[in-house]
Amino acid sequence: MIYKVFIINAKNGISILDTSFKQFKEKQIEKEVFLEFFNAINETIDFIQEAMTKGKEIKEKRRVIESEQLFIVIYYHPNAEVLICLISDAGDNIDKLKDIVRKIGNRFWKKHESDLDYYRETHNKGKFTTFKTDIEILTMEGRIAEEYPKLIVIKNVLQKIHSMGIINDFDYLIALKCTGKNSPLEISHMFDKTRMEIHDNLQKLKELEIISF
Q: What 8-state DSSP symbol labels residue 75?
């Protein structure tokens, strides 16, 4: 699930708008995450400003920072000159997260193009407040990238597939954990693996139509 979404002025790094969907479980984790998050924001802004100083055209720019616990996704919208940023669970679908920051950026530009000049002259953010509703809708209240793989064949069929050698022992054990309630990250922890270490197994099971997401 998405923790937070920010829209940040790429010219000075000031937040225009932010909204939250989930709280961090531990304050120390939150502190570490935000330190890494704002470092990434500052590096991205420095890159953009340096390029502009040199007269280079800045097109869309996307950056993903991945850890075992979280994703940080940063997207630069060149027309609006804002950064759309989010912090999300590492168990979420990264492709959906990349897609949603772009959609948020495009919706924000379409809805508030005429308001951005006024904001940059007056620093008044009031016109953007209602955009929180747009973010909630676009992200399905933060849940758009959640994945909970579910076994879609009965156990006897799964056992037969296993006995035929179509899937190996580890594939079989992973399939049994696909109850529709466990995320890929949670399943990986059950086997003392990282999320990426079971990614290919889950994709194999999906392609064989043994599980669905």
A: E
> Which of 113, 138, 163 represents a domain boundary (last residue)?
138
8 A C-beta contact, residue 139 and residue 21: yes
The whole domain housing 206 covers: 150-212
Residues 56-68 pLDDT 10s: 877 878 999 988 7
**C-alpha–C-alpha distance, residues 111 and 96, integer Å:** 22
Domain end, chosen from 80, 106, 138, is at 138
For the chain, the C-alpha Rg in angstroms (whole number) is 21
- The one-letter amino acid code at 18 reads D
- Tell me the helix, strand and coil percentages in the chain, rounded to 5: 50, 20, 30
What amino acid is encoded at 135 in this protein? Answer: I
Please tell me whether residues 193 and 117 are part of one structural domain. no
Residues 133 and 31 in one domain: yes
- 50 contacts 13 by C-beta, under 8 angstroms: no
Q: Which residue has 């909970």 as its token pair?
A: 148
**Widest CA span in the chain:** 69
In angstroms, the CA 31 to CA 53 distance is 33
Q: What would the pLDDT profile of 178-205 be if each residue is shown by its tens digit? A: 999 999 989 999 999 988 889 899 999 9
CATH code (residue 70): 3.30.450.30
